[in-house]
Amino acid sequence: MQYRGERTPNKNEEWRELEPKLLDAVRDRMRLKHYSLRTEDAYLQWIRRYILDNGKTHPRAMGGVEVEAFLTRLATKSRVAPSTQAQALSALLFLYREVLAVDLPWMENITRAKKASRVPVVLARGEVAQVLQRMQGREWLMASLLYGSGLRLMECIRLRVKDVDFARNEITVRDGKGRKDRRTVLPAALASHLKRQCDEARTMHERDLDEGAGEAWLPYALARKYRTAARELGWQYLFPATRTSKDPLDGKTRRHHIDEKVLQRAVHAAVRAAGLLKPVTCHTFRHSFATHLLEAGADIRTVQELLGHKDVTTTQIYTHVLNRGAGGVLSPLDRVRESRLDGEWAELFESALARVAGNVAAVSPA
Q: Does residue 333 contact residue 353 with C-beta atoms inside 8 Å?
């Protein structure tokens, strides 16, 4: 009941009251389940967009129909990629199941973004050398690790000093994709460079300690369990940032790892300088690592373990190299040129090529 003189709150005011309570509840739940900050930010953006797209209506007042309509609009109007639509669905399922304790009905009327079947971009060995030759210093070392050890971008960026085992020629990846640890090869060609990088990390850490800082971020509750571990050299990042920054979780000032964009920009610049037209990213080095191992005769199960794939079918995407694919087939057009039995046809073909080349030269600008 509304009494005289009372003002009915509009939706903007309701949203201002709703937003911090709901989103804080989502954030708290995600941190309870140890979701990464990247996933946290992505989920919160999708939940906020879902609410705004439905006129700032509280999610509890909506359900499967609204979720279906929202995801369908993403595919039909926004034309998002299948992975983007899947991420939005995961965010909304988390909101309803984990925060609101509401089970959504089976949504069978969603228009799915069509998932394309693509082969990975792979560099030839010479192309890898061309790119790496145009990089230097720390960025060169990180890119070399991506290719030489098959690391993902953030796995390389988040390496700690203790994760490099020179005695066993191994690199341990901690808390990788799927929250799994694994071991991969440490390239012998990079051993001396990695030792020098460890020395640089040591020097920077000692300087931070002298200034009263020097604590690294530790996962979970390790900082409380091992109170001095955060100040030990082994827990420091192998590729530390040049400046300290404030941790968004607890507000403490620490020296974090280098920003991944530094390496991404360096790779992009090197690819352009090398004149490569392939869409090369940091992840392309990991694709090339797996492909070149299989080409050299490595067992697919070994490659699976080095890459950290849960299922070997994921690794099988690289087995196109075993059959050589398009590169192992001689085009019938080229076979005509090489044929000795069809000499007359070969002569006609060569004369046709010469004629075409002459016409192209005639119309080309000087």
A: no
